[in-house]
Amino acid sequence: MIPDSSVKPVNTPGSGRVRIAGLSVIFGEGNAQTTALAATDLTLEPGTFTALIGPSGCGKSTLLNAVAGFTSPTEGAVQVDGRQVLAPHPSVGVIFQSFALFPWFTARGNVDFALKRFGLSKKERRSQAEAALKEVGLAEHAQKYPGQLSGGMKQRVAIARTLSADPDVLLMDEPFGALDAQTRLRMHEILTGIWMKHRKTVLFVTHDVDEALRLADVVYVMASSPGRIIKKVPVNLERPRPVDHMGDGFLKLRSELLGLLRHEE
Predict the structure, then answer these.
(1) Are the C-beta atoms of residues 36 and 82 closer than 8 Å to each other?
(2) What angle do CA 226, 95, 244 make, to 5 degrees?
(3) With a threshold of 0.85, does the pTM exceed it?
(4) Which of 52, 85, 133, 200 would bridge with 138, disulfide CB 3.0–4.6 Å?
């Protein structure tokens, strides 16, 4: 959605490859050291949707934060399209459970404000903000303030804010964890539609097995003490995946993932 290639390179076919090599993260010093993430190797191919599941404290968010450039590796490295990740970069967008919207800005104003860092004109920012809000189904609510929006609508504004910058990689850390079940299912539909249209590379952290299976191409199961990946589970289920038409394949994968998680409790 950002046309000026001098501000951010326009997406090219095959962009969004994430390569994680020997990545480990240790917090603290001396006897107080904690290995949040043991040496991890992982590659996310462009346009794929990957989910991370596992118990609390298994390193899911640490891994995501390292890809985002928020957490520095103790050892190893993360690369996005061959560029080593040393700090946050516009090619990688992040969405958290917290909406983090400015209450004094409208929905459009929140998206517009996030675009100011790219040096776009006011007209360009407005156009891109409106396009992003339309994509998440909020065109008619662009002039409403966060206090006038439901939780699901606030999260859609947060998604629009991130998408408006046209990242190649989209990192999502339990973005729907605070929503009610019905709203959560609706958000799954919206996110799946956006992903199928734009084919961003998505890394999605969740505790919810069903959520991971509804959304992802592949699920990585993580364990704690230390945080590490213990199994890769491909999700070879036809899309779309409506919640009321989950067949034997879904149930078999669900049973496998739940068994792995129970073993790690």
Answers:
(1) no
(2) 90
(3) yes
(4) 133
